[in-house]
Amino acid sequence: MITAQMFDAPRLVTQQPLMELSGVSKRYGSVEALRDVSARVYPGEVLGIVGESGSGKSTLLRMMNLEETPDIGDCSLNLPETKGNLFALSRYAARMLRAKKIGIVYQNPHLGLLMHNSSSGNVAERLLIAGERRFYVLREKARDALNASEFPLSRMDAPPIELSGGMQQRVQIAKAIALEPAVLLLDEPTTGLDVSVQALVLDTLKRLQRDRGITMVIVSHDLGVIRTMADRVMVMRRGKVVEEGLVDQVFQDPQHAYTQQLVHAKL
Ligand SMILES: Nc1ncnc2c1ncn2[C@@H]1O[C@H](COP(=O)(O)OP(=O)(O)OP(=O)(O)O)[C@@H](O)[C@H]1O
């Protein structure tokens, strides 16, 4: 029998992982932020990471962004130009790889943007780091990325400090996708926005994912956001992954007591 669900089936996960973290642990003093966490991100999928505050979601995303190194553990990206454990890269090499292959959108736009520079300049900065120097190319590519992020081009010379929260997130998205990254990391990208603005920004992200097939990892404490965006989900608690699987499966039939608690709290 054909059901509506069949037409909305999650993208199939058949390939080799694009990004793989294995056995990652990280301590901050007495706090164990991550304990033996492994994660695989497959090409073209959206992986959601959910869990309560302090469960280690953002720390894991920072590891994926090669911003931080773990006490122990490996990270690999299945791209022609990368090999071996990426946590062993020098700071410079990690920065270049990040600039060219990984995009990130933070909850707090101050972390991702220069708030007093123009919005187009913020996007162009990313292209500059990757080596582009021609002014007309920088301007054109910045405009394209802002347009794809559904940012109003009439405001492209305005600095983010003068923009609404939703528009600031669109500038971050434009900056993150300007170089067509292999993976786009989203750390609570709509938390703190009005519900209606949140829905519009999520729509833009979904459209980008659909049209460009961008591989995404989205962190949220909000099950609704994960349900809307993700194909697969990892549930974290106290620095550990307690459950993972296809979103529909995990949310409809949670196996771990903590996931059951999360799902029932939401209902
Ligand atoms: N740079 C740091 N220095 C000290 N402790 C840290 C640091 N970064 C994270 N932690 C601690 O590690 C734990 C995991 O933090 P993390 O921010 O990854 O959790 P989270 O699930 O993203 O939480 P939230 O949703 O509140 O952002 C927390 O106890 C946090 O206080």
Report on the structure:
By secondary structure, the protein is α/β, with parallel strands linked by helices. 40% of the residues lie in helices and 23% in strands. It has helices at residues 4-7, 57-64, 91-101, 109-112, 119-129, 135-148, 165-177, 195-212, 223-229, 247-252, 257-266; strands at 19-28, 31-41, 46-51, 72-77, 102-105, 183-187, 215-220, 232-237, 240-246. A hairpin with a 2-residue loop joins strand 8 (232-237) and strand 9. Helix 6 crosses helix 7. The protein is globular. The protein starts with a helix and ends with a helix. Adenosine-5'-triphosphate (ATP) binds next to strand 2 and helix 2.
| Rg, alpha carbons | 18 Å
Distance between the termini: 29 Å
Overall structural class, as computed from helix and strand content, comes to: alpha/beta
Portion of residues in beta strands equals 15-25%
User: What overall form do the CA principal axes indicate?
Assistant: globular
The description of the largest β-sheet is:
6 strands, mixed
Q: Give the uncertain stretches in residue-range form.
A: 1-10
In brief:
By secondary structure, this protein is α/β, with parallel strands linked by helices. The chain has helices at 4-7, 57-64, 91-101, 109-112, 119-129, 135-148, 165-177, 195-212, 223-229, 247-252, 257-266, and strands at residues 19-28, 31-41, 46-51, 72-77, 102-105, 183-187, 215-220, 232-237, 240-246.
